[in-house]
Amino acid sequence: MSEFSGLAGLLWAKTWRRGWGREAPPGATWHSLIAHVWDSGHAGGWLWDHLLAARVRGLLAADLGGREDSARARLSWLAAEHDLGKATPPFAGLDVQRRAELVAAGLAVDLSVKGVLPHGWLSGRLVYQVLCDEGWDGEAAEFVALTLAGHHGVFPGVGWLDVGILPKRRGRGEWKRVQAAVHEAAVLGSCRRP
Asked: How far, in Å, are 73, 134, 140 from residue 20 at the CA level?
């Protein structure tokens, strides 16, 4: 767990700045990405426990040998993993204060990337790579990745995985370790009940 309090602990998921359309909670200026990952995973578990009909839970579990506990964990993991793309230099660099803290801690934030690539799409790409590295079938990994890539309602088009992501957009060096820590937080958080 110490990895989550290191560089990964400096990443943000939500900030409360004037004009960003959010009311700031008392004393808070930002919400960490690790906390957001865990919150989202628990929300996925809550949906399983309290909202999904037994028939739907059964259909989702059928792919996993009928094991509802495994299907619940998978849903929680998907919810937790949805913002992995926020663990990238372009997103982290959007907030000036958070960016300064990351740079001071030794995590390079290159803002020279031109154009906008939604963090959801980056989430999908990063998760696709993680799943393939873990031995998943490419089509199954792409289905999961596409689901995460479109979590704000805008899905990438056909061939989206064939388009390379610039290393400076994805992040180099320490960024890969930080992304692995966020992924690990999603996995660990989805396997636990609150």
From this structure: 33, 38, 36
Cβ neighbours, 10 Å, residue 139: 7
Residue range 115-135, pLDDT digits in tens: 667 888 889 999 999 999 999
Helix intervals (H) in 51-153 = 54-62, 68-81, 89-92, 96-104, 119-133, 138-149
Q: Which of 87, 98, 117 is nearest to 16 (CA)?
A: 98
Measured in whole angstroms, the distance separating CA 190 from the mean position of its chain's CA atoms is 13
Backbone φ and ψ for 85, nearest 5 degrees, come out as -65, -10
* Block residue for tokens 């906390």: 35
pLDDT band at 3 (very low <50, low <70, confident <90, very high): low
Residue 15: helix, strand or coil by DSSP? strand
Ranges of beta strands (E only) in the chain are 12-15, 30-32
d(CA 42, CA 192): 9
Amino acid at 63: D
Beta bridge partners of 32: 12
